[in-house]
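User: quick one, fold this
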Amino acid sequence: MNIGALAATIAGTNAAIAAATAAARAADADPLTRHMRDLVARGRKALVCYVTAGHPDRAQSIALLRALADAGCDCIELGVPFSDPLADGPIIQASSQRALELGMTFDGALDLVREAKPSVPVVLFSYLNPVLNAGPDALRRAADAGVAGILVTDIPVGADAEREAWLGDSPLSFVRLVAPTTPASRMAAISRTGSGFVYLISRLGVTGVRDDVAADLPATIARLRGVTTLPICVGFGISTGAQAATVAAHADGVVVGSALVRAAEQGVDRALALVRELRAGLDGR
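Assistant:
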């Protein structure tokens, strides 16, 4: 065998090993991780849509959950209303307060999922207190209701090993947040304890609609991609199809929250029109 043929054989063997490793990793992954990796494999940029449970009201919340997938959504973040949402801007704060006034709770959010039966995975987006107050079997109840994952905004890696283990060992994927200022070593630690996808915050501050995309975002995504094999979805401030396309040129997907919640205040149809615009931007249409 000549050197060229030998090199080709080695390259083919290495490719086969890499493919087998990827397949084994996918087989071992939880359903949300498999779903998100499948989108990457198909070349589809993930559109993750945040909606507040029970906003603008229960009926419209169910209608929106049922219709998001057909409009182009790939994963739903369902916000559990909380009375002190420190990481959220005025739009999501107001939606949370409205939902609380209408009686929405942690278990009420699970009832929405159970009734709506969305055809794409649902990730509960919550602060820690509502999850703890729901009891020690809260995560199991969420899984039984059809929830695929959970993201807890106020439990940094290493802050509470016992509760992190509770979240990480549950039937739900444990989606972790990464800030743009996080050092690469800490990014790696965060990613190791998470599953589903990594939610990269595009900028510091609270949630809300922005007119621009952070200039250093591509470098931040590259730094994170160097320490994780999980898909990377970027959120905070994305509100248009053009912004979504710009971010998705570097990331595996985008998370849209405040703009969608604001649109939902005008009705389900308005919210779905925005989802279709975002999907068109991600698809280059």
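User: anything notable?
Assistant: The chain has 13 helices and eight strands.
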